[in-house]
Automatic annotation (TrEMBL):
Domain HPr kinase/phosphorylase C-terminal per the UniProt entry, residue ranges: 132-300
PANTHER family (UniProt xref): HPR KINASE_PHOSPHORYLASE, PROTEIN YJDM-RELATED
Binding site for ATP: 156-163
Note: Both phosphorylation and phosphorolysis are carried out by the same active site and suggest a common mechanism for both reactions.
Protein name per its UniProtKB record: HPr kinase/phosphorylase
Subunit comment: Homohexamer.
Organism of provenance: Candidatus Borkfalkia faecigallinarum
Active site: 141, 162, 180, 245
Region called Important for the catalytic mechanism of both phosphorylation and dephosphorylation, residue ranges: 203-212
Entry cofactors: Mg(2+)
Amino acid sequence: MNESEMILLDSFCGGLGLEIVFAGRGRVTLSSYSVLRPGLQFAGYFKYFDSSRILVIGNSEYEYLRDLAPDVRRERVDKLLSYHDIPCIIFSRDLPVPQEILEAVRRTGCPVLRTEKVTTAVMNDLFFYLNKKLAPSLTMHGVLMDISGVGILITGHSGVGKSETAMELIKRGHRLVADDSVVIKRVAESLVGTSPELIRYFMELRGIGILNIKNMYGSGSVLNEKEIDLVMELEDWVEGKEYDRIGDDTLYETILGKQVMKHVVPVKPGRNLSIIIEVAARNFRLKSMGYDAAQELISRTIGR
């Protein structure tokens, strides 16, 4: 898990469909997968209170707070907001924000947000959002493509032809996710890849320069993120080296503790790498559905 991630408030609210009531510090710092409904804190119990969690106030908490005597309500709210590292407070069901909370957050800078969704729906949205944002991550050198619905990570040393191959695949109707730098997160049991925001949709071609793929080929040529299903490692052809010719020698690459199927593809003049990668994607889909051409051929041969 990442230690923390700071997200600008506009981006956070846009991703979750939240209304900004009070922007405060203008950012949200996430460091916990958990979300808290602060009913116990409104009742005066602060032992074990984890202020790193997002606070969600639903109908129950709102009505309980409103039933408190004014001086008690102010004291509980002030104590709650004395914890300055609370990421934000979210009100569900379009509930009005009590004056005591507005006064307290103006002193602390804690953002206050609101949504028309019911509390359970808000909690579910936050659960998926936090698990994605705080998932373990790494950055790999390579190109990530969506090939006929299969997420393929193209790797290999600099200059082997990854970007040129990706460009040919884009021309053939496939979609670019990331070029040169791929940010990979492990979300539950899946590896999800995306591009760093700064270079999203851009590609470098030696001899040509920097290209904006979205502007050049349209929005249908790019994708923001994709689950990684297969790794294609390009390497210079080595004379005398034995390469897999049947497909029964399955290789894997371990990324963030998860094994991903891998093919090593030798590069030499005359080989159409884009077609090879397309074929690998289609073959992967067939294998996922239970069909293995190599096994069928072996069975036919042995059966004779």
